[in-house]
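Researcher: Quick sanity check before group meeting.
Model: Go ahead. Protein one:
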Amino acid sequence: LTTLADQTALALENATLFDGMQRNLAEISQMKNLMTNVFDSMDNGVITTDIVGKITLYNRAAEFILAVPSEKCIGLPYTEVLSSLNNTIFPNLISNVARRENHYTDYEIISELPGRGRVNLSLNLAPLKDAQNQTQGVTIVVDDVTETKRLRAVHNMFRRYVSPAVVDRLPSNPVDLQL
């Protein structure tokens, strides 16, 4: 009778633990889905790498900005996936962040991207830290500032020929410009 009671108690304890584990798994899945939705709804490209340079996160905006689908990125070295950025200072920036824990804000680079042509990119790089404050990789936030640069060039050209008051009333989208 004692053995039967012990086995019953053990079975109940296992059932309770299993139920708790299922709830924790559901909560973790819900948090992961929320995090994925947040990253996918951002206009900024967000890329994370581990300490050896393999891409661990690559959101939809990064797909659009860099013209590389995420299926071809996750788990691969950034030098292989983003090879068009290898001839810029980009690899040095990532190395400095991963090894020296440097931070870079609004660092602009110009590059030729396959399928996009010449683009101006604004980069923010920071170390990716864990709960113990150990560097686990690099977080990269990418913004495409190509259109902003073109608009600024149009505004500067107009400033040479018309009054500043007229230039200030120009639309923010160059497509909307009409005579």
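Researcher: Fine. The other one?
Model: Protein two, sequence then structure:
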Amino acid sequence: SWGPTDDGRIKPDITAQGVAVYAPIASNDSSYGYLNGTSMAAPGAAGSLLLLQELGHRFTANGAPRILKSATVKGLAIHTANEAGLYPGPDYKFGWGLMNSSEAATTLNNALSSNNAISSTDLVYEDVLQNQGSKTYTIVASGKKALKATLVWTDIKGVANNSLNNNTPKLVNDLDLKISSGNSVVETWNLNPANPSEAAKRGNNKIDNVEKV
């Protein structure tokens, strides 16, 4: 379904194929047909995310199969999504783009198999950031593909407000992602809920728990 939320958060998060999907139908145990709608897109996205979790299980963390955090799986999907929509960046129709399961799996595999080696073309970190804290990562661009970073965190629940169309931001923990090179600084994307069809713009995002540069 199209966004935004009342407070302007970017929804949907991700888009998946939902038109003319070849899928099982109820006629009998071997029947297939072409179906449409979010009922087709949702299981495709959910199944793809589960496959990423399964891939993560092939690697160990402290001697046990690695279990990816929900924010990590979400971040992988958003980080590797194909651009969709009329303008660069997210929008309230396609979210962060069309899910690319193959690219997400490649990104995760490259990071985990190399243990985030400096020579890896992809890095995946699961960190804890203390209140008012910051973290800096020094990255050397590989030149093999565009340099980009995605930050996703699981925020704590906000305060419920039952008033209609209340646009008060619900975000509790506001993290900020920036990429800098010398004096050049690039910030994440923002959408304008007052003008939902407007192109995304760069700047300090104070309402989403996803930031991508």
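Researcher: One line on it for the slide.
Model: The mean pLDDT is 94.
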